[in-house]
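Final report, Chapter 2: Outcomes

The project's central promise was a pipeline that accepts a single protein chain and returns its three-dimensional structure in a standardized token representation, suitable for archiving and comparison. That pipeline is now operational. To close this chapter, we reproduce one record exactly as it appears in the project archive, with the input sequence first and the structure output second.
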Amino acid sequence: MQKFFTVTVGLIITLLTILILLRYLPIYKKEDLHPIILPGAFMLKFFTGILVIWIHEHVYRMDDFSHDGQRFLREGEYLYNVFSVSATDYFKLFTGIGETPGLIQKYLHMTNYWSAGDLTLINDSKNVIRLHSLIHFFSGGNRLIHVSVFCFFSLIGLIALHKSFARFIHMKKWHSFILLLIVPSTIFWSSSMMKEPFLFLGIGLFCFGLLGKTSRTIRIMSILTSLILLIGFKPYVLVCFLATLLFIAWYNTNKQRLARSFFSFVLLIGIAAYLLPNMRSAVVHHLTRKQFDFINVGQGGLHVQADSTFYYFQPHQYKHLRITKNVAQLIQPTEALYYRVGSKESPEKVFLSPSEEKWPIVYFKPGCESYIEINRIDESAIQLIKNIPEALFNTILRPLPLDNGSQLKYLAMVEVWLIIGLIIFTLFNKRALKPNEKPIAVGLVFFALSLFVLIGWTTPVIGAIARYRFPAQLAVIICCLLFIDTSKWKKNMW
């Protein structure tokens, strides 16, 4: 009872502190945004965060620690508990300076994300766990406090994003703020306990650093902070941003028509890829490996660990195994895919014979309900190019009515149709952009297409696509808002 009282008081104090900050800090002028809008926006995001938890636990029938947000929370608690044993070891793990496999085995061997190794250049899952461990110092384990902190920082990202584009959007500022706030996929994923809130903060600060109307010092600090966040949570989004900046520079330098600039830029990328075969091979290999991992998760399967090696078995091979709750034992000869822990190399086939060895189960799940077949890259740059139309179709237009998935797919489908409807509306009601606005619109479209393609290349699960693509959809919506001029509607009405 005492613990319940303590964490409840802690939640109330956290919420009141955030609401007071949002109400009284001079973030907006009163004529731009009423002071009550920001506290109201935060509470909307907070209750959306609670909804995210409820959906995972009651719609997807996942227990408290089965989905990403809860796993991050739990592993953050494991890391936090290290502090009570050894503050030195905690800081080694928290910073990564002095972290060793022995230290991980001693304190975090029970984790899924932390102990899995760095399968990419940066294990961005560790960074979410690090943040949760910090919040545990004052949360008492109350997950609603974690939700409130994540929602607060994602709201700061929304404020920064709105301030970046508001002066280019021809409507009242509070109208545009509310529109950006209630984009369904954005508010849903940016109110979770996962990577997206701090990804959103990074996106907002990056745009504010480029377009914000403030001092050079603040803009530089915004960009530096955004780079840390984007590298730390979703590096591929930063890659799309950097590619967009290169394209805008190319577009501004050549003063060509948009179509000509686009095709000449793509041609330059093709020439660079041809002249730099090692870099091309590295990129194709990385995308192949990411696609392989996503396909395995999407199809379902069993991952077991044997010393420093992972073995992967597909569902049709389960009959060759004796599977209990935590371990698996091979009882009949069969093939498996194997790769080293933390390795970025492509998995290889190996033939295994029965033995008495029992392997700890690392991952054992049925296939995802919304899994779709996609063409495999298979280390081929040519295949990567061939897959672009498929990637765009899957990320822009899906889910379709006949696609597999839970009832929530219809919400994602309605959002897709609404965005398409907004694009059509904009085409028939657009205004002429000013010279300084054209590069912004061009950049938003290029960023969206880049992100759509990158996600579509590697992701065969519609639910994951709906989660990952929200920054691209948001870019499309902002681009449409740039073209719409609501002041003309009033004139036409009179």
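Archive annotation: DSSP finds 21 helices and seven strands in the chain.
This record, like all others produced under the grant, will remain available to the consortium after the project formally closes.
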